[in-house]
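Supplementary notes (optional reading)

For those who missed the lab, this is the record we used. Protein: DoxX family protein. Length: 124 residues.
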Amino acid sequence: MNTFLWILTGLLAVLFLAAGAAKLLQPKEKVVATSGAWAADYSPGAIKAIGLLEILGALGAVLPAAVDTAVGLVPAAATGLGLLMIGAGAVHARRGEGRNVAVNALLLAMAAVVAWGRFGPYAF
């Protein structure tokens, strides 16, 4: 199970690093064109803040365990990513973007499994 959680955490981190970097490094117009029309409703600062939170969550899910320091941050970061996905799912559901809601639900499930495993029976 430990190996499964590492793989799931790594996949979660890669996905959130990519999504966060796209939001943080690209101008708002490019984010709207690539990520969806939802971004048009938000200021450039808000989009960059979301991207930064995604990057920090991804790093927090992997780095503490990788360097064996403050490993309690791993499930906390996974919980934070799950909360981001709840918010994102609410935004997409309000806009009627069913496909994006499904992606958010999948990412939420992945983050929940990592949080459950690392808070509970498979803690470091």
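If you only remember one thing from this example: The first helix runs from residue 2 to 25.
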